[in-house]
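ugh ok so i messed up the first submission bc i forgot one of the chains. this is the corrected input, ALL of the components this time, i swear. 1152 residues overall. if the numbers dont match what u have on ur side tell me asap before i send this to the collaborators (the ones from the other lab, u know who)
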Amino acid sequence: MSNKPYVDFEPKWVKTPAPANSYRSIFRWGDPDFVKYPKESLYKLMKERFVMTDEDFKNYTGSIGMEEVKLDMPSKLDQVHIDALKEIVGEDFITTEDYPRLAVAYGKTGYDALRLRAGQIDSLPDVVVYPDTSEQVEKIVEYSTLHNIPLYVYGGGSSVTRGVEPTKGGISLDMRKRFNKVISFNEIDQTITVQSGMSGPQLEEALNNAPANFGASRKYTCGHFPQSFEYSSVGGWVVTRGAGQNSTYYGCITDIVMGQKYATPIGVIKTSSYPREATGPNLNQIMMGGEGAFGVLTEVTLKVFRYMPENRKRFSYIFKDWETAQKAAREMMQCEAGFSSVFRLSDPEETNLMLRLYNVDETPLWKMLNSKGYKDMERCLFLGFTDGEKGFSNNVAKNIKRIAKQFGGMSLTSFVTKSWEKGRFNDPYLRDTLMDFGVTTDTLECTVNWSNMSQVHRDVREVCHALPNTIVTTHMSHCYPQGANLYFIFITKMDDAEEFRRYHATILDAIQKSGASMSHHHGIGKMFGPWLEGSLGKTEYGVFKALKDYFDKDYNMNPGGTLGLDTPEDEKRFLK
Amino acid sequence: MSNKPYVDFEPKWVKTPAPANSYRSIFRWGDPDFVKYPKESLYKLMKERFVMTDEDFKNYTGSIGMEEVKLDMPSKLDQVHIDALKEIVGEDFITTEDYPRLAVAYGKTGYDALRLRAGQIDSLPDVVVYPDTSEQVEKIVEYSTLHNIPLYVYGGGSSVTRGVEPTKGGISLDMRKRFNKVISFNEIDQTITVQSGMSGPQLEEALNNAPANFGASRKYTCGHFPQSFEYSSVGGWVVTRGAGQNSTYYGCITDIVMGQKYATPIGVIKTSSYPREATGPNLNQIMMGGEGAFGVLTEVTLKVFRYMPENRKRFSYIFKDWETAQKAAREMMQCEAGFSSVFRLSDPEETNLMLRLYNVDETPLWKMLNSKGYKDMERCLFLGFTDGEKGFSNNVAKNIKRIAKQFGGMSLTSFVTKSWEKGRFNDPYLRDTLMDFGVTTDTLECTVNWSNMSQVHRDVREVCHALPNTIVTTHMSHCYPQGANLYFIFITKMDDAEEFRRYHATILDAIQKSGASMSHHHGIGKMFGPWLEGSLGKTEYGVFKALKDYFDKDYNMNPGGTLGLDTPEDEKRFLK
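and heres the new structure output, hopefully the right one now
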């Protein structure tokens, strides 16, 4: 974030790469060589807020996971099954070794990181398989169904809901190695069909280079850029109903998907790929959100968009307070002038942090803000950029400017947005650095309608702040004419997995009680599963059970809590 | 269409209103006092194309249905059930009389009209009930489930798929009389919640007058204007997954719906009303398309849009041929400059008819087209208008102009579009007028991707034209970056219901074989039901059966062929 050396004390930030085959290489985010740590001013602010001292940053609070993974947990799967799987994928593409098994056992929620740091292995697949083709996946699903072997899928591994965790052991399909190919590209229809294990960067790279790759007449973009972009997979986006940071223009993944193919226990399911249909309930929308509980997603057909970064208009504004800023954002979303691509409004507490994170505190803007009456812990930062055809893009930016002014917003130029762009995919690295000193950060998000936004914001923050010395920042992103996603980030001194889990549950309770939806784009997984039936209603939730019974009556697909489908009744939470 | 008197022979067009309680008042479209008939030049063209003479237009080919409805088909429902229903809705809101029963027995496909003209009563409800509240509907569903009485719903009655037809008798709920109220309006969220029986004009009127009706700060529009607008209901739009003529900008109904409430045999289903969610399969999308087979839709929450007709830009262009026109349309949809509201491209045969229908043959344009090389039966008419904020609307129109020019399109000014607007909701009246003389017209529509559009167009037209002396016109509307809806209209000499049905089936076969989707926005109903399983695939279609078994295991909700759910196996058609 800033390359300036520390003047006073600098904590013992772990700057060395995570060793190969180490625990750290599993729980740490992404690139083993990349390190991110707070600059000095931010470090000082944090100490103050967490009531910590330099002393607390001299030693790590626990293991930092540099040791090699060695488990005393041999595979419990019969050799006959392993041989059968070898028959399907080839013997080089299956393993029962410790490291590759642990590498696909966890996702990236704080709960996962804390457990791994403590060496707490709650779940482990018996075998990891690396499929190459849809036919292989179909055979594996058939086999696991026939022999009642639990089957899990690991795409990019960035789940924050315990979505990939093989709580019942069995087989885990690691899609990263081979299940990541382009199947077809159609420039007339502007669509691409890929295997579900393809990563975000692989897809974007393929599309940006469409002329060379497919003989296309122009470059394209996938339009889907979640914060986890670099370490997430197309399949993960789809089965969890994800959303990218540019979704306000490009749509969420549910808007981008044209068609899907699944290997399910009752056979292959292939949806249609028409832009719209009136042929009964929408099968694409039934399958998206299944989170692997109905079968394994093998192929996805996606819309693609023209790659026109030259038309992009960056903007950022500061508003005097959260209520006014919300009104401005709502007017921007409802005025029918087109939507900007990134559209992000931070609440006062997040603004306080972000202006430092984006180095605004090192510019003349900082003083000007105070002198113009945009007060710290009241002011709200709004930033984003537009996409699309030039005239469209200009018109969106022009209207945002008009409305920002109307609501007393002051332009901060494109500087802040550019800073945000630099860090947009690497904030998760910061978490690992802080966690070494017992400071945990994680996120929860939810959907709200405009009329309920202030209440949800207030209620959830109140619960988060009940834990002393906690920073809780909130932003609105993924906006719509009828509402928006509220994204809560909490940072607090905490190094115990169970404590994390209790805290997380308390916030989830608060989100639901406040009238917000449980998830806008992270999905449900096994972590949020106990709440789902209570959140949707018993009769409504019964639809999911009916679908599960149709596709996978023996519960072999991602079993052990996914969508709460096989959560024991006494573990379910009913708040309504 | 033209008020000029005929110079030569004028057919005996039926210009008198359909008498109250007559068959004609049921099978005729809409307003009993409104009459539409072709102008003389079009009449002459039609005679030529159908190989008919003035003699054929001197006498009606059959009954024109002026007689009063009198049936010898008494209600078969036990008095105890009728008394129980009276208990629920009050005794003034239930009837077993002939006329109101027949009035809800049919929709508006040509098959319905031909049957009614021939006095062929295949279906009739035993009793018609007029509910007032959702609670009443819930009690009726509960009662009909308990006693295994078939339950049907009649909204606007404009179904062209036999969607409303009570093929098993029982109860029909006529929603028009009382189930048409606004439940709530939320200006902050820009949403309205209404009872499902509300008609298009009732909804639009409520929104256009939002300041007076709800104390709102501005006027709104529903954005959903199917050709059937005046005689269709919100509930019908939703359960069939309809689309309005302005859907390219406002979206189809599946984009506009925020939330739904149903009375089902297993209880009330209430979906959430958030703009987006990642909480498993999307319940809103599961319920939309149910066509009454899962339960009765009682309440709908819809997005509303700002009413800004002052920003509308009308345009029309003529292209030299269908292939070039398609390419231009595709570029307009893919260039990311925003979408126009109405976006309609006619093929050469439709253009031939439309230029007359819109009176272009009476203007100097007519000659100019020929002299500029836009040849009859090759040229294609493209028209539409934009909506939205002024800058947005202007930018869309500007890009359409730019692209039209690029593909050799010539502007026809806004004149043609205005003519189209005048007739946009009343073309169905023309059908009734022609049918009196044994000329039948009807429509089929389907979704195609751009890369398959030419083939579908060619294949389906070929089959339609296999019947001699048939006019088949096609237009593309409801467009998307990935494809469009193709809308086929056939006009032919035909006055037998069974002949119609066979012809209709042949075209539907052709649509499916050509690779198009069975329906873009008309739905499936009982008429298209036999094709659905073959179209979607057995395993895929099984999802619908699983949902049906969950909601209505005894098949009392809209039974007798809806979505093919209880279609006998030997009546199903598998083409793939």
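quick check: The two ends of chain A are 43 Å apart (CA to CA). that seems consistent at least. The first helix of chain A runs from residue 24 to 27.
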